[in-house]
Amino acid sequence: AQLNSKHMLPQPLSWFRHNEIFCHSLDDFPGVCPGSLRHAKAGMTLATLNKLCELQNLTSCLLPQEELDIRPKVSSLLGKLVNYTNLTQGVKEHEEAESTDGSKKKVSKSPSMGTLMGVYLPCMQNIFGVILFLRLTWMVGMAGVLQSFLIVLLCCCCTMLTTISMSAIATNGVVPAGGSYFMISRSLGPEFGGAVGLCFYLGTTFAGAMYILGAIEILLTYIVPQAAIFHPSGAHDASSAMLNNMRVYGTVFLILMAVVVFVGVKYVNKFASLFLACVVISILSIYAGAIKSIFDPPEFPICMLGNRTLSRDQFDVCAKTIVKDNITVASKLWELFCHSTNLTTENCDEYFLMNNVSEIAGIPGAASGILKDNLWSNYMEKGEILEKAHHPSVDVAGLKNNLHLYVLSDIATSFMVLVGIFFPSVTGIMAGSNRSGDLKDAQKSIPVGTILAIVTTSLVYFSCVLLFGACIEGVVLRDKECVSHHPWCICLMFLFLQVFGHGKANGEPTWALLLTALIAELGILIASLDMVAPILSMFFLMCYLFVNLACAVQTLLRTPNWRPRFKYYHWALSFLGMSICLALMFISSWYYALVAMLIAGMIYKYIEYQGAEKEWGDGIRGLSLSAARYALLRLEEGPPHTKNWRPQLLVLLKLDEDLHVKYPRLLTFASQLKAGKGLTIIGSVIQGNFLETYGEAQAAEQTIKNMMDIEKVKGFCQVVVANKVREGIAHLIQSCGLGGMKHNTVVLGWPYGWRQSEDPRSWKTFIGTVRCTTAAHLALLVPKNVSFYPSNHERYNEGNIDVWWIVHDGGMLMLLPFLLKQHKVWRKCKMRIFTVAQMDDNSIQMKKDLATFLYQLRIEAEVEVVEMHNSDISAYTYERTLMMEQRSQMLRQMRLTKTEREREAQLVKDRHSIARLESLYSDEEDEGDPVPENIQMTWTKEKCDAEKRNRGSAVGSFRDLISIKPNQSNVRRMHTAVKLNEVIVNRSHDARLVLLNMPGPPKNTDGDENYMEFLEVLTEGLERVLLVRGGGREVITIYS
């Protein structure tokens, strides 16, 4: 501020020298202070200094060069945002694309399309289609004007609500190419995006097949009927012949379209406006014809026999007889019904004889009042004859052989069927969002253009429903072929190209084009417009459903990045649109809906199985975080009930010097015990300083995660850096977990080789961890000989899991075997429970009580009570205790000698000079007094005499080891451990796993080494042992 102040008087550079410590302190950072400022002379004034500052980049005075690489200047960031073309901001791909060689970069055109040409007209072009011209009149005839209004209203409300949700998503940042896939994948995740994007792709592909089928239907029915390849061989083969013609011509047209897309789609795209003009002219002709019908209704007679509609394909004159040369002769109609050229009635159809033939106006006009007859629905079954209600008729049965002479319904109709057929005529609302990269202001054009297009097309549909119902006779409306026979229908021939009018001219993938053509061929082979339309309705509805869901989820989560420029949205509208989409799916065709959901689900699971390559910050992750927070807050309300208790594990892993897991079977045991349920935290400690060993901690965490994937352990990993391993383990035990999701059980490995090592730190760390878990009221599991435990690929088809229940521990010994037997490795093992009875115990009653207790616990197990008689202490026990105390005394004397203390000091110095990873059960804490690194001694006579006396006392103390007598308390404990081990080995030597209570460490730390010896004696001779220590609470109950 002082440098840039305009009111400051010129002064020498002494002021800057007064603050030169700033630059000197930053000499190690290149580019921090400009060289001109460092080497400025004392006579330089402030004005000269200001000029130097203008020449130098003063941003480098604030940030080191390496921070400038990750924190760019505001000017460069804004320049990138302004020059945005079609790539997403903030991703590595964008930066890599900008950093490539300039010769390889193509000059991209700036977006220049507005709302009209970029969104409104493309949406109009995609929404209007063959359904409007080929099926809307038929829908009005079947459903009536009122239910047709309801169908159009449902479909248009669905697309309008979807457009509101889509506008909110599309205006929440830049949406490049990708359309619905991009929006949904960024909102709900790549799994949903891939599933719905592929569904949208399938719907668009089937839409191409539908447009081709509509074009062929016009071609073969009205324009060139003689071009048909297959002709009906009988009266009832007309439908199958037409389907075969559709398949052949459809395949030819599809190949032609594929070639056009592959070779010259850019030329066809130039005629998109011409195609839209054809559609607009066709629609305008509907209004012109309706207005003209008020004053001059067109001549369009319909031949009726009674109240039944006759098909005029096989006769010309609508009369039973005709006058020819003043003679009344039988007409062609008489010959068809009576099978005779004379006027005899012997073989005539009874219905033909009893009813009159008449002609009615097919298009009476808007002023005729026909609207009131077309208000209500006239749904029909397949093969039913089209009849005019309230027309004079004698109801008698006719011959079935003459049914082909009437106009019949080709499919069964209902409200649900018509919804599925009509819905494709309102799709195409995403044409604008797909072009967002070409829009000048996409966040303004997409909502306005799409909503205006939907409003326009909805008004056209509503008005057409009203005009068709007011101008056309009901039997004509219900005849698909009859109502479309108008001159404006010829314009539909051009509509088959509109679905291909949006291809990209640059680099269309060949294999994707071939796959698209093959999928479209499936729709062509169906060959029925009425069957293809519901299929693509399902896929479009699925896409629109998830667009609404994406908007609703983002709105409810209120993520900080959810800031749409389009403000007229609400989560309730999105949920309403989602509900309408789901309802329309099952209304139109419930089995097609299930198939579409199955396809989307399979795609979702496949993408989830393969794993998403990128993290997009989607709404599902935010939803998971909100759900996790809610669940954690609920868990905080109190401790879990005994019925809900299960071991939530904290597994303390040991890593070797190369950061590899030393005992991976600990993870295997954890996965078998948990079977994917509950909480599992894998913890490890790295000794050192956090700032220096952070990289090692990250590498160790990744190694543990890889091993967790191999062993199929579902859980979390936490690596702690601490100066002492014992402190790191204490930190893990205290701080792991969050809220109610905290561990209640610690899995600890056994310190192998502790007897052979002169260093006591390994077993002292082990005992310290046992004391920490006891103080924290946590359960403790110590798998001994864990390398012999089975892998996840092994199966025990027989064998026993033996439980030695010595003291009550809250039921842990009962619960753990039950949980292990849920895993496939242990499933076929039998459970046996042993308990020990003293001389004054009633062993028979104990066995009955234990069996009753297990029955109430719903645990199947064999029960055995082992009696231990009081016996004299054996010589082996006495000798074993003596050896234990002699070894302890010897090591204690060795640690106290001056020579060993100097050696220990040297080892500590060497350890500090070589950076390596210590084991989990080692600690750098020195057990003796601190020793200086440099030992300098000046020998005097007194010191020399003292040293001789110390050496003499040390030699004497070693001689005392021979005459030592064991402590009686230790002898009794050793006697108990030896006798119990004999019983356990005798009964469970062949067991697959032995579980027994783990006695607690002594309160006096002087007996820690003896405690380790007792545990060794207790488990001696057993292959797989699991030492269990309860956490001080009941974990199993007999109540439901």
TrEMBL record:
Q: What Gene Ontology terms describe what this protein does at the molecular function level?
A: potassium:chloride symporter activity
Q: Which GO terms describe its cellular component?
A: plasma membrane; synapse
InterPro entries from the entry? AA-permease/SLC12A_dom (IPR004841), KCL_cotranspt (IPR000076), SLC12_C (IPR018491), SLC12A_fam (IPR004842)
Spans through the membrane: 113-134, 146-171, 248-267, 274-295, 411-431, 451-477, 483-500, 512-529, 535-556, 568-585
Instruction: Tell me the membrane topology, using the record's own terms.
Output: Multi-pass membrane protein
Keywords in alphabetical order: Cell membrane, Chloride, Glycoprotein, Ion transport, Membrane, Phosphoprotein, Potassium, Potassium transport, Symport, Transmembrane, Transmembrane helix, Transport
Compartment(s) of residence: Cell membrane
Q: Which reaction does it catalyse?
A: K(+)(in) + chloride(in) = K(+)(out) + chloride(out)
| Keyword presence, Signal | no
One biological-process term from Gene Ontology? potassium ion homeostasis
Q: Which residues form the Amino acid permease/ SLC12A domain?
A: 119-294, 395-473, 504-650
Instruction: Name the principal localization, coarsely classed.
Output: membrane
Which stretches make up the SLC12A transporter C-terminal domain? 664-781, 794-1040
The family annotation for this protein states:
Belongs to the SLC12A transporter family. K/Cl co-transporter subfamily.
Name this polypeptide is given: Solute carrier family 12 member 4
Q: Which organism is it from?
A: Athene cunicularia
The gene from which this protein is expressed is: SLC12A4
